[in-house]
Amino acid sequence: MRIVLCAVLAALAILGASTAQSRMLTIVGYLEDAVILPSGLEIKAKMDTGADVTSIHALSIERYKKDGRDWVSFIVDTGKRKMRFRRVVARVVRIRRAGTAIVERPVVRLSICIAGYNKLAQVNLANRTGMSNPLLVGRAFMRSGGLVIDSGQKYVGKPVCPETRK
Q1: 57 within some domain
Q2: pTM for the whole structure
Q3: ∠44-159-48 over CA atoms, to 5°?
Q4: CATH of the domain at 128
Q5: What is the Cβ-side half-sphere exposure of residue 30, based on CA atoms within 13 angstroms?
Q6: Mean per-residue pLDDT of the chain
């Protein structure tokens, strides 16, 4: 396993060296601890290369208007702790799963820290009841942070959270 991982990293290093701008890559497991800032809410995250956008388990989703803007209030339930958030709606996504109707989900900006990488990310709100991990991290977040998944590992990254990158 380590030989394969070394080969992959070597290939990535060669590819990265051929570009004008190389960047640091951080290896993470397919499951990681994350923190939503500035609240400090710790949450279990699953890296999902099949999803482009990040999604969070949200309950009691209530949309409303404030100062002429669309807002949403929601509760994030980590299984250990519940916290209410209020955010401006950045946009609304329409999602269709095979054999089901189109569902509209509000998208908000949340500051998420994983393995020392912190980003103000667009996150869609979804009822993920029954799923074991309340935060599903999509490719856009991983790509922007240079996060590379070691699918045979869990909780590799250290949850040290620097300032938010916008």
Answers
A1: yes
A2: 0.80
A3: 45
A4: 2.40.70.10
A5: 7
A6: 84
Q: Is residue 26 part of a domain?
A: yes
Which run of H or of E encompasses 15? helix 2-17
Residue 11 confidence (pLDDT): 46
The answer to whether residue 52 is domain-embedded is yes
> Total structural domains in the chain?
1
Q: Confidence class of residue 159 from pLDDT cuts 50, 70 and 90?
A: low
Residue 121 lies in a domain: yes
Name the residue with tokens 């500035």. Answer: 38
For the CA atoms of 127, 54, 96, 58, the dihedral, rounded to the nearest 10 degrees, stands at: 10
- The helix (H) or strand (E) run that includes residue 4 is helix 2-17
Strands 147-154 and 26-37: parallel
Q: Where are the alpha helices (DSSP H) in 35-149?
A: 139-145
Residue 105: domain span = 2-154
Of 144, 143, 104, nearest in space to 124 by CA: 104
Q: What is the pLDDT of residues 98-109, one digit of tens each?
A: 778 888 999 999
